[in-house]
Amino acid sequence: MATGLEGNIRLVATDLDGTLLIGGRNLPRPEAFPVIERVCDAGVLFLAASGRQYASLRHLFEPVADRIGYLCENGGEVIWQGETLVRHTMPRELALDICRLIEETPGARYVLSGERHSYGSDPALVDYMAREKGYDISVIERPDEVREAFIKVSFMVDPSRNDEMRTMFEECYGEQCEVVTSGAEWIDVIMRDVNKGTAIRELGEVLDIPLADMAAFGDAENDRQMLEAVGHPYLMDPCFDSMLDLAPRCRRVPTVEGELERLLEKAVRRA
Question: Long-range contacts of range 163-167, CB-CB < 8 Å, 24 or more positions apart?
C-alpha cells in the first residue's frame, strides 16, 4: 500500500466524540469529507475508531462510507470493505449480569451491543440512539430475550457520576472486563484486553501494517491504548485531564482535519 503522508503513515485512526466531533457536533463537519477522500486517495486506510456500532458509524460517514474502515464497539470488532477482520464477543451470562446491575443502578440506562444489532430496555434511550446516533437498535423487556452473541455493554449516566460509576463497575467486573469512559455520559464494559489498542494491533497484523506506520487521534480514556500503540499519536487540545500524562509522546492538535491537511500539504511539497 503506497502512502503520501509524512513518516510513512499508512493508517489513520480517529476517535469521534471530542476528537473528530467537537463542539457538541453529532456529525462530522462537511469539510472533513474532502480531507478524508484525499487521505484515501493517498493510499492510506482511514479508520473510524469509536465505541459506536457499525451501522451508526456508516451513517456518520455516509459520503465516504465505502472507502474507510471501522473500528467499532471500542475494539470489539473491526470491519474493512464489508469484511469483519477482528471480532471479540462476551460470555452471555457475564453480559446479562452486567445488564442486571445497570438496571439496579438508579439513573443508569444500558445499550447491549450484539454482533450487528443493539438493544435497550428504555424506549426513550432507544429512540434517541436511533434518531440522533443512527443506531440499528430495538426495545427489549429483558436482555435474555436477545439471541445473538454479545460484544459490549454500554450505559448512560449523569456526567457528575461517571467516575463513581466507573469505579463501582471496575470493582465488580474489573478482573474480567475493561471499564472505560466513552464520553462524558457513557461508560463501556467490554472484555479485558479488548480495546482500541488491541484491535488496531490485530488489524495491523491482518493487513501487514506496522504500528510504527499508524497515526491515531483521541481525547478520552477509551483512546489510551490506541494512542500508546501507534507510532504517530495525536492528543486533542482540549482532552480529558486523565489523558494529560500521554502529552509528552503525543502531538497536541485542535482538530483532526487541520492536522490531516498539514500532513497532506507536506506530502505535496515533498513530491
Answer: 165/105, 165/108
Integer Cα distance of 120 and 103 in angstroms: 11
Helix 92-104 to helix 162-173 angle, to the nearest 10 degrees? 140
pLDDT of 67 higher than 50? yes
Sort strands 77-80 and 177-181 into parallel, antiparallel or unpaired.
Answer: unpaired
pTM score, whole prediction? 0.90
Q: Tens of pLDDT along 137-171?
A: 999 999 999 999 999 999 999 999 999 999 999 99
- CA distances (Å), origin 114, targets 98, 117, 119: 14, 5, 8
As beta bridge partners, residue 63 has none
Q: Pairing state of beta strands 118-120 and 109-114?
A: antiparallel
